[in-house]
Amino acid sequence: MAIELGKLGIWRSYNQVDAKFAAEAEKLGYGAIWLGSSPGGDLAFVDELLAATDSLVVATGIVNIWQDAPADIARAYERIAGKYPDRFLLGIGAGHREATKEYKKPYAALVDYLDGLDEAGVPVAGRALAALGPKVVQLAGDRTAGAHPYLTTPEHTRSTREILGAGKLLAPEHKVVLGTDVAETRAIGRKTVKFYLGLSNYVANLRKLGFTEEDVEGEGSDRLVDALALQGDAATIARGLAAHLDAGADQVIVQVLNEDPWPAYRALAAELL
Fold this sequence. Notes:
Elements: E1 8-13, H1 19-28, E2 32-36, H2 44-51, E3 57-60, E4 63-64, H3 70-83, E5 88-93, H4 106-120, E6 127-129, H5 134-143, E7 146-147, H6 154-164, E8 169-170, E9 173-178, H7 182-196, H8 200-208, H9 213-216, H10 222-228, E10 229-232, H11 234-246, E11 252-256, H12 262-272
Parallel strand pairs: 1-2, 1-11, 2-3, 3-5, 4-5, 5-6, 7-8, 9-10, 9-11
Helix pairs in contact: 1-2, 3-4, 6-11, 7-10, 11-12
Keywords: Oxidoreductase
Enzyme class: oxidoreductase
Organism: Amycolatopsis melonis
């Protein structure tokens, strides 16, 4: 892989990350920030983050293929990668059908989008693909630097690595809540996890991972919430995140759900970096 991400990254909505945030993340040793909530357009905010840091990688997690044409995103990629070589990774994905009126045949649409990026000159090594199911995971391995799974478990990471094989990027996201009051941390985790239980692609993947209908109903079972949003002190959470690395991830991407994320980011950096 031409782009070195390091073993620990941060996932955060693009509108919650600024130059100061990026500089602090780099200082703590995080290798990359993945910008969520479908960043699009000219990606001008990426330049600001890269300008404020020396080695941090910025990735999109993800640009929604229904939102921006590949030629437009390719122009943004060319500008950023030209100014900051090997420090920008273009993560793309099909999102979920409930949020996109135009959502049709996502696999074919992903192939078409990757064809458009090829035509516009975006290199395979400079892009990654959001992938859950084996078919899209294989597409990620064949047509991009690798896969960026979201809302998964170490078991999914292990099976995804088997499909990708060696040498391809695997960077799963995992949510965490720092704290030792189980009722409080679980409530915080559930508030976020329950949103995804209304989205068919995530629910289908969770069923494949062995979660039952009872687990994915309503606001989610305690078992489900605890698996998808790691809770506890820093050492406990670090063990859960390390399970992804042990299962074959190159980088595990941490999404902190606490209102103030920095105590968790600092504590986990001390445990894992």
